[in-house]
Amino acid sequence: MSEEGDGEAASGALSDGEAVVAAVEAVADRIEAERDHLTDLDSAIGDADHGGNMARGWAAAAEAARDLDDPDPQTVCKTVGKTLMAEVGGASGPLFGGSLVFASAELDDGVTAESAVAFAETYLEKVEDRGDARVGDQTMVDALTPAVHTFKKSIETDELSPLEALAKAVDAAERGVAFTVPIRAKKGRASYLGWRSVGHQDPGATSALYILEELLATAADALDSETPDVDATSPTIPDESEEATASDPEGD
Ligand code: ADP
Ligand code: MG
Question: Could you tell me the pTM of the whole model?
Fold first, then answer.
């Protein structure tokens, strides 16, 4: 991701497109590593296919992304989205993949802080539209909504760097995943269980968190930075990163 809307890749050796391919590869590796865990979560409230669906889809997406010749971020997102739609199946394939294809339209001019916010908002809107789910329905929307809202606010109001904003978004998504546990599923297979869905963590929300965690790790890598340690509910981070790089602020 370019910093501050600078057209030049702020990513050392990697172009923006290559950084996005690296992110897709990191997601594929992570989802493969979490395959059994995701399957276990889906066994409890669904049909035990989420780990396999996602691992297959992201492996194919990583291969398709790697095969692109000198790609830009928009082309990578479109390719990954189409591959996920074709390979993931279930409810989550069209939701994760179709929304990615749609939201990639926001990346006409590459990845800047502004286009990343537009991308995130469009992605969430599309997931909500397609799945007809909202916060509180025990779906991936419960992880994506706090992540996208926090990302937008962190960029537009708090004027944080894209990396800090993404770190806050990841923290928010983690809270969203935790929120799926004590609530009842209203959409997807888990809703068939009625009140028995209460007490279970949603698999799709969990995958969304893993994807965001890998985006953050890859963005930090590409920008040659540490992953910021943030709290989504903390006030705006002051400019201490610029003023006193190595100082350890005294907390309460
Ligand atoms: P399936 O439920 O068809 O077996 P998966 O197991 O791959 O598909 O994915 C299940 C996940 O998809 C759920 O955990 C949930 O996060 C998400 N999901 C299911 N239905 C919806 C929906 N209508 N809106 C948003 N997300 C949904
Ligand atoms: Mg399933």
Answer: 0.90
